[in-house]
């Protein structure tokens, strides 16, 4: 029987004794914990590693927890956040929640409450991604037109004008959806990978090329040329549908 996976919680808290106690209680509750007393090292970690949730103090020696959340949002690093602070003012709480924070716990607090709140946020965020096909596409998204075809995210299908209904994979659909919403502009390779695979994907991987080959082959087989989807050497791609 497989052990239940342990979520990784990043704790950003400069009070050493408090952060140690938090880590102890979270580990006893079946979670992995990474503790940082400053914003800068926490940001570096999150830029290169996946985390299930951030437990974030607002006032830190090298900045403001709200600013860290803004930076993560700007870099498309999507991690649930629970603010943990001694600031009990409603204005601060509203600001944190408006920035996209998932919860706001004020000091002093009970460790059992913090564990319960973390579990509640994890349940919410996990169910939120249940409909994801890729990072940029959900099964609840409606069909869209693409070079005379009709793409159905809800069925993982491409409907061609010749009547063929082609079952396709998630990544292929994610690529088509991104091209559909980014016509006639240069798309960097890194941008396309992060949009479909996620911010933590390896941009050096050749997986993208393999999926693009699959997309081209499916369209060629059904009599539609993808010559309008061009490589911009050294940068990425551009999709210029004819007639637009």
Write up what this structure looks like.
Helices cover 39% and strands 23% of the residues. The mean pLDDT is 88. Helix 6 crosses helix 7 (189-197) and helix 6 packs across helix 8. The strands form five sheets. It has a five-stranded parallel beta sheet, with helices on both faces. The protein has a four-stranded antiparallel beta sheet with strand order 10-11-12-13, covered by helices on one side. A three-stranded antiparallel beta sheet has the order 14-16-15. A hairpin with a 2-residue loop joins strand 4 (59-60) and strand 5. With 244 residues, the protein is α/β, with parallel strands linked by helices. The chain is elongated and about 65 Å long. It has helices spanning 16-28, 39-48, 65-74, 90-98, 111-128, 170-181, 189-197, 207-221; strands spanning 8-12, 32-36, 53-56, 59-60, 63-64, 81-85, 103-106, 132-134, 137-138, 144-146, 149-152, 157-159, 165-167, 186-188, 229-232, 236-239.
């Amino acid at each position: 029987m497989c052990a239940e996976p342990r979520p990784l919680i990043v704790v950003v808290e400069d009070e050493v004794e408090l952060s140690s106690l938090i880590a102890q209680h979270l580990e006893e509750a079946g979670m992995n914990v990474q503790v940082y007393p400053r914003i800068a090292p926490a940001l570096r970690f999150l830029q290169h590693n996946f985390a299930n949730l951030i437990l974030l103090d607002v006032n830190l020696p090298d900045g403001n927890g709200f600013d860290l959340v803004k930076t993560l949002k700007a870099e498309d690093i999507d991690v649930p956040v629970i603010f943990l602070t001694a600031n009990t003012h409603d204005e601060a709480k509203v600001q944190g929640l408006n920035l996209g924070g998932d919860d706001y716990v004020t000091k002093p607090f009970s460790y059992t409450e913090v564990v319960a709140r973390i579990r509640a946020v994890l349940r919410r965020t996990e169910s939120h991604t249940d409909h994801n096909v890729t990072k940029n596409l959900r099964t609840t998204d409606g069909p869209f037109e693409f070079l005379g075809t009709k793409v159905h995210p809800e069925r993982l299908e491409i409907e061609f004008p010749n009547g063929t209904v082609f079952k396709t994979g998630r990544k292929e659909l994610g690529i088509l959806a991104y091209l559909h919403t980014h016509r006639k502009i240069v798309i960097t390779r890194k941008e396309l990978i992060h949009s479909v695979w996620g911010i933590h994907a390896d941009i050096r991987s050749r997986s993208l090329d393999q999926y693009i080959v699959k997309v081209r082959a499916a369209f060629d087989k059904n009599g539609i040329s993808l010559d309008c989807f061009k490589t911009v050497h050294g940068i990425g791609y551009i999709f210029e549908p004819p007639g637009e």
